[in-house]
Amino acid sequence: MCEFTCKCANIIQSWNPAVLGLLDSLPYDEEVVVWGRRWIVKTSTLGERHGYGVYACEDIIVEDSASCRREGPTLFPYGGPIYKRKHWNMILTQHPEWKTFALEMDTFAGSNRRHSDGRVIDGDPIRSGNIAGFMNSMVGTQPKRRANCEWVFVEGPPPAPYGQTYHEDHCLVIATRTIRSGDELFTHYEWN
Ligand SMILES: C[S@@+](CC[C@H](N)C(=O)[O-])C[C@H]1O[C@@H](n2cnc3c(N)ncnc32)[C@H](O)[C@@H]1O
């Protein structure tokens, strides 16, 4: 087995969703609790051909007085095995479809100390238990959806009790405006 294959196999085997407070598997059409809040994954309001979406099962209030959108309530992490860019590129040559759920954690706002490797999180909800992977984008929606959350890069480990020893930094999904029970989560990303 080549060095690359060994490395990737180790990363996959050592990924444990529970460390980051995620579930081993995500049932559809059934309420789940992740990071203390209730959610349901079911067919998106975008329509069946666009797959599933994540819906809140409780109100999440964002105070108008929040001075900074990044201070909105934390919903859950964007979690999954983390690869160096060079390893991820090699995976994509064999599994180009894995790109759908990839989050480049060192190339979006919030990071002052960019990791030189350009790390990628494999956020596939099936492989990684990453509920955030089911979030759809408001880009191009008709009728127009407004984003109600965004993902942010955070230096340092996630809040206790999650991932304290495993993570030197992490990505979170936070609410940017009030989300009511029954609302589907939408964020902003280029999906096609
Ligand atoms: C990260 S996944 C989101 C979860 C996806 N709905 C699923 O069930 O796996 C991204 C994929 O969802 C779909 N998607 C996300 N936002 C969309 C949008 N605004 N319009 C149409 N499809 C969208 C596209 O198929 C895209 O490749």
Tell me about this structure.
With 192 residues, the chain is an alpha+beta fold. The protein has one domain: SET domain (Beta-clip-like), CATH 2.170.270.10. The protein has helices spanning 3-14, 85-94, 125-128; strands at 31-34, 37-43, 52-56, 74-77, 82-83, 102-104, 120-122, 136-137, 149-155, 169-175, 186-187. The protein has a three-stranded antiparallel sheet with strand order 1-2-3, with no helix packed on it. The longest helix is centred in the N-terminal third of the chain and has 12 residues, at 3-14. It is globular and about 50 Å long. The mean pLDDT is 90. S-adenosylmethionine is lined by residues 44, 46, 50-53, 100-101, 133-134, 136-137, 139-141, 191. Residues 37-190 form the SET domain. Pfam families: SET (PF00856). InterPro entries: SET_dom (IPR001214), SET_dom_sf (IPR046341).
Biggest beta sheet summary:
3 strands, antiparallel
CATH class: Mainly Beta
Number of strands: 11
Structural class by sheet pairing and helices = alpha+beta
Overall radius of gyration: 16 Å
Number of helices in the DSSP assignment:
3
- Annotated CATH architecture: Beta Complex
Q: Uncertain spans, ≥5 residues at pLDDT below 50?
A: none
Quote the CATH topology. Answer: Beta-clip-like
Global morphology: globular
